[in-house]
């Protein structure tokens, strides 16, 4: 028995399920053990927007010993000399995922293990197989002394906003914090350890995933459209941008000191680069992978509540 997670989402919880059929589980583990070169640590590999790999978590140390595998590992995630290795095992797992909806996980409320998710994940896996991501070196993180500054929005100069210095260590250095906070937490600059969802605090959760749905949920939480100026009582007022992967997920960015944007794709590290490892100076034109729909800019004041 083991848990499978497809690391692919930024806002919603990743698709995850438990393979509780011993025969099926042993067949998969045997196939993986037969090509151990495909596996890596869960925090290695591609960490941008879109499909990032398959994660396996074993539930018993006897399984790990039987197959000589780590208790937690990833594969088909862009690592190794041949990143396409392991794709067929990944496809086999995704094709069988709907058989394992009998064990209901908390994540299933936001991300059901159904045929629509299955189809989307198979499409993303095949795109990955066709064009595996390149693991490019990132530019060094910029260092700024000032913690936060107040500036005027260049498009709406009557509106004041606050820009914070880029501080990825706050989100990345502790694995629990990294795994339990997502792009919405980062945009609001508020750690909740709940993988915060737009509209969950205000009971306006968006589904299906489209710009209009996620925008409405965020407005229910207290965000406002760009150029709807917030008073000084809302300090600090974050300047954020929203994009959507039509039909299945959303992603947020936050502007930082230095005229660039930071973001945090799901449970992966916070960063200031796009899918091409280029510093993000414009979220409308950067490489966003499958997050093709740009939904607009917003302000998030201190009264915005997220959970």
Detail the topology: elements first, then pairings.
Layout: E1 2-7, E2 16-19, H1 22-33, E3 39-40, E4 53-58, H2 61-67, E5 72-75, H3 87-95, H4 115-130, E6 148-152, E7 160-164, H5 169-172, H6 175-180, H7 183-188, H8 211-221, E8 224-225, E9 238-245, E10 249-256, E11 260-263, E12 293-300
Antiparallel strand pairs: 1-2, 1-4, 3-5, 4-5, 6-7, 8-12, 9-10, 9-12, 10-11
Helix pairs in contact: 3-4
Provide a short characterization of the protein structure:
The protein is α+β, with helices and mostly antiparallel strands and 307 residues long.
Which percent bin holds the helix content? 10-25%
Shape: globular
**Rg measurement, Å:** 20 Å
What average pLDDT do the residues reach? 95
Quick one: how many beta strands?
A: 12
Low-confidence parts: none
Assembly state (oligomeric): single chain
In terms of structural class, how would the helical and strand content be classed? alpha+beta
What percent strand?
15-25%
Q: What's the tally of helices?
A: 8
Biggest sheet, strands in spatial order? 2-1-4-5-3
> What gap, in angstroms, lies between the N and C termini?
31 Å
Would you list the SSEs in sequence order as H and E?
EEHEEHEHHEEHHHHEEEEE
Largest sheet geometry? 5 strands, antiparallel
């Amino acid at each position: 028995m083991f848990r499978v997670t497809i690391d692919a989402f930024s806002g919603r919880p990743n698709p995850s399920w438990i393979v509780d059929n011993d025969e099926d589980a042993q067949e998969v583990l045997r196939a993986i053990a037969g090509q151990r070169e495909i596996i890596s640590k869960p925090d290695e590999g591609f960490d941008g927007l879109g499909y990032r790999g398959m994660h396996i978590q074993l539930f018993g140390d006897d399984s790990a010993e039987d197959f000589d595998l780590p208790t937690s590992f990833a594969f088909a995630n862009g690592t190794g000399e041949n990143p396409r290795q392991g794709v067929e095992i990944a496809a086999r797992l995704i094709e069988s995922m709907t058989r394992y909806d009998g064990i209901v996980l908390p994540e299933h409320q936001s991300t059901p293990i159904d045929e629509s998710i299955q189809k989307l994940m198979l499409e993303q896996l095949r795109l990955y197989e066709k064009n595996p991501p390149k693991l490019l070196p990132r530019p060094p993180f910029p260092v700024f002394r000032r913690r936060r500054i107040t500036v005027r929005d260049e498009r709406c100069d009557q509106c004041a906003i606050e820009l914070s210095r880029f501080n990825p260590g706050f989100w990345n250095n502790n694995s629990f914090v990294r795994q339990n906070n997502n792009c919405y937490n980062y945009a609001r600059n508020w750690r909740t350890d709940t993988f915060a969802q737009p509209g969950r605090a205000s009971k306006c959760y968006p589904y299906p995933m489209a710009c209009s749905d996620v925008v409405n949920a965020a407005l229910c939480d207290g965000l406002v459209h760009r150029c709807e100026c917030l008073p000084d009582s809302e300090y600090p007022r974050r300047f954020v941008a929203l994009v959507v992967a039509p039909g299945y997920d959303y992603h947020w960015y936050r502007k930082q000191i230095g005229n660039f944007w930071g973001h945090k794709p799901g449970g992966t590290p916070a960063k200031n680069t796009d899918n091409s490892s280029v510093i993000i100076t414009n979220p409308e034109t950067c490489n966003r992978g499958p997050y093709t729909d740009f939904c607009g800019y917003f302000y998030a004041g201190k009264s915005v509540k997220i959970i």
